[in-house]
Specification:
heterodimer; A: alpha+beta; Umud Fragment, subunit A; 7-stranded antiparallel beta sheet; 4-stranded antiparallel beta sheet; B: alpha+beta; 4 helices; 7 strands
Chain lengths: 169, 170
């Protein structure tokens, strides 16, 4: 009886043909490795710069192929290479290449015109002198405008450092 | 002819093989290996495991300065640090070593690209820095880009800065 139970468990674990099970496990492991490394990168958020849109310590995925067929757009939440290894910034694109951007009392001005930021819960009171973006450059900022601009990591990033787009933003 | 393999002969033969292997490995080290070793040596020298006297700190600051070119430039805009001379660098190292109790500089990951001429190289490195002093502790991971040049057969740092993908706006 005991022997029957253990053989049943073994059969449930590895199937009636263990060599096929082994191949399936290897294929699944390889697929998972490739998918989560090169396509859907898992991200654990550490910081409050994107609050309240993205909560601190929340878990998300980034689509690393999002910009293979098109350029980033204003409002996209993007993951940006931080240190060439495994840490990344999570920011929102607020300015596109060639544009001149400034913040006046929390209002975003693009080429001198007011552009609404519907994703914000509170627009804040940031001020920033006009910045002209060169080709391939984007202005990125977090959604947490409750913090002062100088204590918030925001600025210009080149397209080569934008790794992908947050899924479900 | 008869060869006698007693334990003395075997031991001597083994020693010769080990020494020759070490010599071959040592003399065949690539430039990349040399730079990586220099970088690790610099991290070791930069670490501090207890309070240091002013004299010891001064000596160590001088030793660390020898890893840098006299035309060095160190920039970390986000940390608002800018160093343009060896004297300034030595002073910063001296101040840090005399005011802190412990500094750990641990290289985590290093990527290196050697230029085609073999006389310069570009490094990206992630480093874990932990420091404590005056009852306070701090630990953080930081990435750096470092430009190395070969001068008089020795690899030294010409330029270093934080790896900054977001250019902050003042």
């Amino acid at each position: 009886m005991k022997r029957n139970a253990s053989s049943l468990f073994l059969r449930m674990a590895v199937g009636s043909r263990p060599e096929r099970t082994l191949v399936r496990v290897a294929v699944l492991a390889l697929f998972s490795f490739l998918a989560f490394r090169y396509v859907w990168r898992p991200i654990l958020v550490d910081g409050k710069s994107m609050e309240p849109t993205i909560r601190d310590r929340s878990f998300h995925f980034a689509n690393l192929l999002a910009y293979r067929s098109g350029a980033p757009r204003r409002g996209d939440i993007v993951v940006i290479d931080k240190d060439a290894f495994s840490t990344m910034y999570l920011k929102r694109i607020v300015g596109l290449p060639g544009e001149t951007l400034e913040f006046v009392d929390g209002n975003l001005l693009v080429n001198g015109r007011l552009v609404p930021e519907p994703y914000l819960k509170w627009k804040g009171d940031w001020d920033m002198q006009a910045v002209k973006l060169r080709p391939g450059e984007y202005l990125v900022a977090g959604d947490n405008r409750y913090v002062s601009r100088r204590s918030h990591v925001m600025g210009v990033v080149r397209d080569e450092f934008i790794l992908g787009r947050l899924i479900g933003d | 002819m008869r060869i006698v393999l007693d334990w003395k002969t075997l031991f001597l033969g083994g020693m010769i093989v080990v020494v020759l292997s070490l010599l071959v490995v040592r003399s065949c080290r690539s430039e990349e290996d040399v730079i990586r070793d220099r970088f690790e040596e610099l991290c070791d020298l930069s670490s501090l495991s207890g309070t240091e006297s002013a004299l010891a700190a001064g000596v160590r600051a001088k030793e660390i300065g020898e890893f840098f070119s006299p035309q060095l430039r160190i920039e970390a805009r986000s940390a608002r640090i800018s160093v343009d001379s060896l004297q300034e660098l030595r002073q910063i190292v001296f101040n840090a070593r005399t005011s802190l109790d412990r500094i750990d500089v641990e290289p985590r990951k290093v990527e290196l690209r050697l230029a085609a001429d073999g006389n310069s190289a570009s490094m990206t490195s992630s480093v874990r820095i932990s420091a404590s002093g005056r009852g306070e502790r701090a630990s953080f991971d930081e990435a750096f880009t470092i430009d190395w040049i070969k001068q008089n057969g020795k690899w030294i740092i010409l330029k270093a800065g934080r790896y900054e993908t977001i250019r902050l706006i003042d």
